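cron nightly-structures :: item 1 of 1
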Amino acid sequence: MPAEAARALAQKIEERQGASLRLTNDSTRQAAHALRLYADLIDQPKAEDMSFKIETWEGGALMEVIARCALLPVALAAFEAAKEHRQSYRLTLRAGCRLIREHGPGVS
């Protein structure tokens, strides 16, 4: 269900409250709220659409991608936070194959 369809359904549920809709007021509010949250979730960018990745490495092997971000300022902040929590690993911040930042053992 596309995000706009979920929002439209939430609006329709609220408009029909008490008319032909057989839900309590509380259930109506909860259903509309859940649909709006679902719509917001659908609107979030997909991981593969986020161009910045923060990766952990051990030796020459990639261990895991710990974050993906769509915006560079967010990626830089996430990289700084990762440096505090993953001090024993080599970390990279990349956009595709381009290396933006690197930190950790063996990095000069």
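cron nightly-structures :: done
The radius of gyration is 22 Å.
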